[in-house]
Specification:
271 residues; mainly alpha; three-stranded mixed sheet; two-stranded antiparallel ribbon; 10 helices; 64% helix; globular
């Protein structure tokens, strides 16, 4: 039993070693090693398909003023996205929903929920969120998540087959324990890293687009109030706590303010 369990752990360790070796093949915009197994064209196709599905499943806002307001902000942000990421015209859709959320997908797709528009006090705060979401696309975090999940899935499946083949009675319990270890030790920290990177890429984007980067801090203060303290401990969450985000944003604020002051235009988007 002990030998089999150790062998299972060895298989998982081998998976993580392979993941690490593959990670040396690419780097994020902030210089972090990344694992990316999918091509940009594959990602764009997935993004377009997913966006088409979301538009059929969720109510699209018909409020022209709100739509123009969000388009004004998104247009200013996407002008500073490298053409190597997406060279076409970005598609923006405002969804009529109280969700305080937004997203961006490969292939030039952006979705914003009316709940977020209501929470954001001004154009700068909404620009911080849109910049953050576009930051995920720039850094190809979706590619990285799918790639790591694929390798981890292979490692877990091999381990499970080994347990089943050897007739280990407590194989389900062992798999549950290994799965929890992978989630808390690998996948959740991975998610927090992506969020932190997107925060900083978005901060840079909004500043270069002419939006006040200091408002990103105000936004996360508003987010904290909106959550009413109902948050998981950071260790068990895919997202950093607002206080952690604010600390990171504040640390990188001097460079963002320099970019803001140097911006050639200062948008005046009105709702």
């Amino acid at each position: 039993m002990r030998i089999i369990t150790m062998r299972c752990i060895q298989y998982l360790c081998l998976t993580f070693i392979i993941l690490t070796l593959f990670s040396s093949c690419a780097k994020s915009p902030l210089g972090r090693n990344q694992l990316k197994l999918y091509s940009s064209s594959q990602l764009a196709g997935m993004g377009e398909q997913a966006f088409a599905g979301i538009k059929t499943e969720q109510k699209v806002s018909t409020q022209q003023v709100s739509n123009q307001y969000v388009e004004c902000i998104a247009d200013a942000i996407t002008q500073h996205v490298p053409k190597s990421v997406f060279a076409g015209e970005w598609e923006l859709v405002v969804f009529d929903s109280p969700q305080i959320n937004a997203f961006a997908l490969p292939g030039g797709k952006i979705g914003v929920y009316t709940g977020l528009i209501e929470l954001s006090e001004n154009q700068h705060q909404l620009a911080a969120v849109i910049g953050h979401e576009v930051g995920h696309v720039i850094a190809e975090h979706g590619n990285e998540r799918m790639s790591s999940s694929a390798l981890i899935g292979i490692g877990m499946e091999v381990t499970n087959q080994l347990l089943q083949t050897n007739g280990i009675a407590s194989s389900n319990l062992i798999m549950a324990g290994l799965g929890l270890g992978v989630q808390v030790g690998v996948q959740l920290p991975f998610g927090r890293t992506h969020e932190s990177e997107a925060d900083l890429i978005g901060l840079d984007l909004m500043a270069k687009a002419g939006f006040d980067p200091q408002q990103s801090v105000n936004l996360w203060q508003n987010m904290e109030k909106a959550s009413e303290g109902n948050r998981q401990p950071e260790l068990l969450s895919t997202h950093p706590l607002p206080a952690t985000r604010i600390k990171s944003l504040s640390k990188n604020m001097p460079n963002a303010l320099s970019n803001y002051r140097s911006a050639s235009t200062k948008p005046n988007c009105k709702i």
